[in-house]
Specification:
The protein has 277 residues and is mainly α. It has ten helices and no strands. The protein is extended and about 105 Å long.
Length: 277
């Protein structure tokens, strides 16, 4: 280390600078404490990284995909690509890919894929493998985010009455089975995920208490988001039904008002003739 007063190098273990003869014991102790603190922070970051990563899907599933889709980033992303890559967007292969995505973005297939990813990756064996291995963990996140994009794309673009009804069914089904999964995790009597045992004492929680907290996070906040989406879709369906009913009423009223003079004109000669007779 260097002396804070004269800048000369001081050998390790010395507390007095040989050049300026000043006591640097306090500086040495502070630097040692700072080094130990940095090492401890790095250790904590390494220990907490899996916990942060495992909590991310609970946030990204109901929040990030709909916000991303509502932002309509497709054109912006396309222009961000290199020119030679943008040419691929007009190729037949790309049209096949977009056709497959459109087919999977229908409400029922999208909800089924999203639910399958949710249940499979929360199975204890799959979840522990994802937390322990980076490659499996990346695959888990890809499945969560990809199926969530398909699901919320089906919800966002559900404009027609038929698609709105199917989207309500898919969203409500996701609300129910997602709540069931969160409830099972919350009310389990023992830790389901072996990887967390002995690692949750950092924040004074047992593995079971940490699991219950994660289950509640998955059960209540996510359930509120899916319920809100169902209510919004239902209100759109009701509004469409009212609009159709109002349009039909207006057409009937217009037809009656347009046909009334003709009926009167048809009846008028008959009435005159009857009077003449």
């Amino acid at each position: 280390m260097s002396c804070p007063y004269c800048g000369e190098q001081v050998n390790a273990g010395f507390t007095v600078c040989k050049t300026c003869h000043r006591d640097i014991a306090l500086v040495v102790s502070l630097e040692d404490a700072n080094h130990e603190l940095e090492q401890r922070v790095k250790e904590l970051e390494a220990e907490l990284a899996p916990f942060r990563a495992s909590a991310t899907p609970k946030v990204e599933e109901p929040v990030a995909p709909p916000l991303l889709l509502l932002g309509k980033p497709g054109v912006v992303f396309a222009w961000a690509l290199p020119a030679r890559w943008r040419r691929l967007l007009s190729s037949s292969t790309w049209r096949l890919i977009t056709g497959a995505v459109d087919g999977l973005s229908c409400p029922l297939p999208a909800a089924a894929l999203h639910g399958l990813a949710l249940w499979v990756w929360h199975a204890p064996a799959a979840f522990d493998a994802a937390v322990a291995r980076n490659g499996v963990h990346a695959l888990e996140h890809g499945c969560f985010f990809g199926t969530a994009l398909l699901f919320w794309r089906a919800v966002v673009v559900a404009w027609s009455r038929r698609h709105v009804g199917l989207a309500i069914g898919g969203t409500f089904a996701t609300l129910m089975h997602g709540g069931l999964l969160g409830g099972l995790i919350t009310m389990a009597r023992h830790p389901l995920y072996a990887w967390y045992r002995g690692r949750t004492e950092l924040w004074s929680l047992s593995a079971l208490e940490d699991q219950q907290l994660a289950g509640l996070l998955m059960w209540v906040p996510m359930g509120i988001i899916y319920l809100a989406a169902s209510v919004v879709l239902a209100s759109r369906l009701v509004a469409d039904s009212r609009a159709v009913r109002l349009h039909s009423t207006q057409e009937i009223s217009h037809g009656l008002s347009a046909g009334r003079p003709a009926a009167l004109a048809h009846r008028a000669p008959g009435s005159v003739e009857a009077k003449m007779r």
